Amino acid sequence: MARKYRDFISLEPFSLEELMEILELAAGQKADPGTYKYIRALTGKVVGLLFEKPSMRTRLSFEVAVSQLGGQTIFMGPDSGVLSGREAIKDVAKVCARYLDAMVLRTKRHETILEMARYAEKPVINGLSEDSHPCQALGDLLTIREKVGRLTGVKVAYIGDANNVCKSLAHGLSKCGSRLAVASPEKYGLPESFLKTLGTNHGISQVLDPKEAVESADVIYTDVWTSMGQESEAEERKRIFQPYQVNLELLERAPKAIVMHCLPAHRGEEIADQVVDSPRSVVYDQAENRLHVQRALLSILLG
To answer: What is d(CA 262, CA 137) in angstroms, rounded to the nearest whole number?
Structure first.
């Protein structure tokens, strides 16, 4: 990949060819982890994990990926105060860039990531913001390619809140020539302002009825109804989203579809227990693939 993009903040600026380079490298590393040529790409390098929000998969997958590539990580979590506003983000960015070779941010505000990237002279990776979750989308694309056998022409039905995960998935699928049908309650779908960022012929459709969305779907995808920072809305969201649960009845409408969830899952809310544990669920393969795509991404950005 040409070093046109130093940072990884969103899938939006990346071309299909650049995304495929990451996925191809991830697939190759996954298939033959002992011999791929970038195995020690991060030797002598240190990656900082600067997190304002709790994390399991994002932290674990990045720490393991950096270790496997021969580097080290430094974790600064919510208690560290590094992104709390105690000092200007401009100053944090400039100082961290003197110590670290790259920074992975998991933030409350997307603007924090943009400001870090503006002032840090080292790569900044978006590990999650309220606006997007591009590393998750990379893992999702790899999982769909593995399980369905292709990306072009695949239909994904996303059921529930069109949140940061849905937005990043939309960016990735639209570039791959896939279709995304989003079923959300009124006012909880993808906003028009976001759809405009996808250009024309983006393959995104929005409906109110989840049964309509899953017709002929290859993939059924869902996420929590209440994201971090929305806890005060939890009870209202449970009431509004109840008809949008991914359950066995909904799966019958798409008999060949695999089921995806970025986790953590609120079993019995957005997804039924029987669905998470069914043979059609690929949620744990999906979680594993976060490691492979992030290892590939680090290899390309820093190797």
So the answer is: 9
